[in-house]
Design brief:
106 residues; alpha+beta; Alpha-Beta Plaits
Length: 106
């Protein structure tokens, strides 16, 4: 199944929720949201820096992950960036494909 990385930054309201309920409840909420679309949370970590949490999930398709991302963004409690992750073998396949690309001005 494809894997995805969510980089989550809490809004002030979202941070208040984490202070009130703790981190385990956020992980449980992520797991519940993933399960609702047939996905699975592989790992969930809180962090310092630009992102407050990093979540890696696997899902059957992009639309399922987009649904989770939209739900999180629409909640107003967090901003989310979603990254499609690729295995080294998938990159091997990409590297073997021929692409006829012409850079601008050439």
């Amino acid at each position: 199944m494809p894997k995805y990385l969510f980089m989550v930054s809490y809004t002030a309201e979202g941070a208040k929720g984490v202070l009130k309920d703790g981190g385990s409840k956020r992980r449980a909420a992520a797991e519940k949201a993933a399960k609702a679309v047939g996905a699975r949370v592989e790992s969930f970590y809180f962090a310092f820096g630009d992102a407050d949490a990093f979540v890696i999930a696997e899902a059957p398709d992009h639309a399922s992950i987009a649904a989770v991302s939209l739900a999180v963004a629409a909640s107003g409690g967090a901003r989310i960036k979603t990254v499609v992750l690729m295995t080294p073998e998938e990159m091997d396949q990409a590297a073997k494909k021929t692409v006829g690309y012409q850079p601008p001005g050439k």
